[in-house]
Amino acid sequence: MEDQAYQNESLTFEERAKALVAGMTLEEKVFQTLHGAKEIKRLGVKAYNYWNEALHGVARAGVATVFPQAIGLAAIFDEDFMEEVADVISTEGRAKFNAQQKYGDYDIYKGLTFWSPNVNIFRDPRWGRGHETYGEDPYLTSRLGVRFIGGIQGHDGKYLKAAACAKHFAVHSGPEGIRHSFNAKASKQDMYETYLPAFKACVKEADVEVVMGAYNRTNGEPCCGSKTLLQDILRKAWGFRGHVTSDCWAIKDFHEYHMVTKTPVESVSLAMNNGCDLNCGNIFVNLLQAVRDGMVTEETIDGAVTRLMVTRMKLGLFDREMPYSDIPYEVCDCVEHRAINLTAAKRCLTMLKNKDGFLPLDRHKIRSIGVIGPNADSRAALVGNYEGTASEYVTVLDGIREAAGEGVRIFYSQGCHLYKDRISGLAEADDRLAEAKAVADASDVVVMCLGLDATIEGEEGDAGNEFGSGDKISLGLPGKQQELLEAVVACGKPVILILLAGSALALTWADGQEKVPAIVQGWYPGAQGGRAIGQLIFGDYSPEGKLPVTFYRTTEELPEFTDYSMKGRTYRYMEQEALYPFGYGLSYTKFVCSAKIEVCGAKAGLIGKDARTGAAKQDRTAVQDDGHVISAGSIVKIMAVLTNIGSYDGAETVQVYVKAKDVPGAPNCQLKGLKKLTLAAGERRETEIVLDMRAFGLFTEDGEKRIWPGKYEIYVGTCQPDKRSVALTGNKPQVFTVTCRECAVVETI
């Protein structure tokens, strides 16, 4: 084959892609819009499958490092570490891709277009896919999403290490069982304040290469064919230049379930004309008929295929040499990556209760430990969903046995099934209860390993039991687990409760029990999770995880699952007291945080509007530090000092929240800044967190974020400023008050 014009590396990727597409027939172009794109041998275009997953490690393609599930990574509250993890993932992704290409494997899960991260907001704890997300807060989700994308895509300047994908755009968070027909109704204010910010950050800050549409409709429009989302917001308002993919088989939902079209041809036309470039599925073959019928122009398809080819060119798939082509297979699940994985597992564990310092245990004073529960020796409870294959899995039972050493006897009982009433099919109900009691009686202390796994908490179609779609029907422990817990506690031995689950459970009973002195939320902690839990129990390190979601007391506190209004949801809008609040997590050591603030004048380029005339103006007012007056162009510098006054080395997150005191209907305090610091015992460290005026703004229904006249409170500490957080931690954030004197626009959608 002679050299083609698109192989001229002196041209831009867009010029090369246009040249390549110009040489394709209509049929060839249409088949390039399917996730399994066909080879075009005469043009030297290899087959390519866009469908690949890397939520917390390279998934579904053999051995790779299996990190904690996304919600567990979020609990680390550390932007820098998130990028480090994502960099490992993309390194292994490249290594596997290079090997697969060498041996001619172009199958599904073998490409470099990773359909991660999931930056949907975990607005309701019943949602089965919530553990794929970074939690309930748009600021935290934005920061982690941006840094995950940075790690996946790399910083070469020309080539992508891999292509990340922000999904599912937009307003998608259950219920799973009706996602193919559901219309998520959200006010513009909720859209701008909650559902869109993370996607905007991924596009405008991280330059994410791919955006995936959601299954549902949003305010009447199917997301994968929504003019509002894909054209008006994504491409026009945000300037997105990458490609858009549908969720898998979502476009056929247009006519089969949403009923917004009548035929497959109408459905593909709606999707393509509104900017969906790639079809996960095969329904886009109907574009051939759509062109013949005049419903889609060939020029529109040219634009879509050009964008797809630009992505593949950025990945270096048409070039002779590029920076990542020599990454060897040997890096996959290597010793160094397993070490980072163990660090991630340790850092994600979140201690919810530790009465009177019950933990850590002293190896020299414990003779026997009973390990009981359906998640004690479960690999499934380590990994969540969209997982890879680890070369080693360390369950909680394995980890405790390893950490305890030879001098401690370990007893084990499964106790009960994860959600059924018996383990053996021919047995009566509660067929392991007597054994569990016997284990408790024989032990000095009991570690109860309860919770969920991805067989009952996950995506519609993945979870196949009486819990149906993958959503939770309540926040209670499923099956016989609560009965098992109560029976073991009644035996009188102290119980350490380890929850392996990707979402909040109602732990009110356990929280109130004297005989349950310690509770640890383990999430789905990855293949090394059991080792991390064992070491935590014996104090080999201090826990540092923070909750990226609110733990409620009951399901009854929540609005209807199908109600997408944010009223009454998450720490930002809830009115009742949480069981365990967002941002909460205990440590073995003790930190104190002090801070001061400085308000600086206008920053060049930040334009406000006169509240009376609407005319634009530049605010260059110099504001004195002691005045604490903010205006459109101000920035607030927070100088925080964190001191570890305990006896353990450890890490803590400085958290900054903002509350508009005088704006009717304003949310509760909102996270607007964070910084994770690691300190040795006795060490003191300073950090600076800068807030611009967007941190103080609130969106209106017309899509403008404004700062309003009145007082704003800034809270600086290691937890939320709510009464429950203060009571649980004994730490009260420092509060500063700043005043805004006039209304100004600080951001538009």
Written account of the structure:
Residues 603-626 have low confidence and may be disordered. The strands form eight sheets. Strands 9-14-13-12-10-11 form a six-stranded mixed β-sheet, with helices on both faces. Strands 18-26-25-20-21 form a five-stranded mixed β-sheet, with no helix packed on it. By secondary structure, the chain is an alpha/beta fold. The protein has three domains: 25-331, Glycoside hydrolase, family 3, N-terminal domain (TIM Barrel, Alpha-Beta Barrel), CATH 3.20.20; 349-573, Glycoside hydrolase family 3 C-terminal domain (Rossmann fold), CATH 3.40.50; 591-748, Immunoglobulins (Immunoglobulin-like), CATH 2.60.40. Helix 4 runs parallel beside helix 5, helix 5 (138-153) runs parallel beside helix 7 (197-204) and helix 15 (396-404) packs across helix 19 (529-537). Strand 16 and strand 17 form a beta hairpin. 26% of the residues lie in helices and 18% in strands.
Overall, the morphology is globular
Strand order of the largest sheet: 9-14-13-12-10-11
Unreliable segments (pLDDT under 50, ≥5 consecutive)? Answer: 603-626
Average pLDDT over all residues: 94
Provide the helix percentage.
25-40%
CATH homologous superfamily caption of the largest domain = Glycoside hydrolase, family 3, N-terminal domain
Using the 3D structure, state the CATH architecture of the largest domain.
Answer: Alpha-Beta Barrel
Radius of gyration: 26 Å
Give the C-level CATH assignment of the largest domain: Alpha Beta
What assembly state would you assign to the polypeptide chains in this entry? single chain
CATH topology of the largest domain, anyone? Answer: TIM Barrel
Strand content: 15-25%
How many E strands? Answer: 27
* Number of continuous helical runs: 21
